[in-house]
From TrEMBL:
It is found in: Endomembrane system. It catalyses: 9-(9Z-hexadecenoyloxy)-octadecanoate + H2O = (9Z)-hexadecenoate + 9-hydroxy-octadecanoate + H(+); 9-hexadecanoyloxy-octadecanoate + H2O = 9-hydroxy-octadecanoate + hexadecanoate + H(+); 12-hexadecanoyloxy-octadecanoate + H2O = 12-hydroxyoctadecanoate + hexadecanoate + H(+); 12-(9Z-octadecenoyloxy)-octadecanoate + H2O = 12-hydroxyoctadecanoate + (9Z)-octadecenoate + H(+). Pfam families: Far-17a_AIG1. This is Androgen-dependent TFPI-regulating protein. Belongs to the AIG1 family. It comes from Macrosiphum euphorbiae (potato aphid). The lineage of its organism: Eukaryota, Metazoa, Ecdysozoa, Arthropoda, Hexapoda. The chain crosses the membrane at residues 40-59, 79-101, 122-143, 233-252. Its main location: membrane. The keyword Lipid metabolism does not apply. InterPro entries: ADTRP_AIG1.
Amino acid sequence: MEASSSLSSAKRPAAVVTSALRCWSYTEAERQHLFRVSRLFITSYYVYVSYYGLFVLDLNGVDHPTWGNLGSNWWWKCVSVWNLILQISYFIYCTVFIDFADSGPGKSWKKLRLQQSKKIRDFIFVSLVFPVTIDVCVMFWAICAVNKPLLFPNEMNNWIPDWYNHAVHTNPIVLTLFDMATTKHRLPKLIESTAGLFTLSGSYVTCLLYNKFTTGRWVYLIIGEVTASLMEVIIYFAVTAFIMPFMCLLIGHKMCSWFSSSQMKGKHKMS
């Protein structure tokens, strides 16, 4: 009896590993269907996060000296919200214009524009979604590790629950990496990706500067803490809004290229 129980316990880890890797033993069509369903769940998840942020959280009622005079709807000036909108838009676009067009009813006429839709998807992901998500989320948690009140005052926990904070600043990294690993993205030209990324970064910097001139305060306390002159402000935005996202863009190009080549090698082995 002891020998049989020990034998069965030894088989359990192998069974767990086998079931975890079973997905990769599916045919290519089965895997793509599974990934489409996963993206549908991700889209539904982001829709709920948006609903919760817009209609459940009462951020207009925030009464804090740091945030009180930023005006109504101040959260639209936060880069994390811009990134959340980018994530939501991307996954909705993938679900509606690519996954549905590739597998849903009426696909005969929708497939005519499918390749163009994929080209737009790849540009948005490589140029905007990946670099902005990695930059925003990593910077948020890095600053919180050093001095959290400068970025997220402790009093904000009274209005924003921990799970929503992670939904905005943690989960996007996981979901972005999942999409990169399960979708073959064709890389756009680096100069085109850089132009798109810098256009978005410049738009957000303009939003922050406009808020500073109209309210007299920065949206983020850390900007006022680390900058005391015009030159320091220029250096701060050059590093945080342009140089660091560009580094993330280069990393994204390398990773997308690696994942795409790995997927091609996997297809050749299966064939």
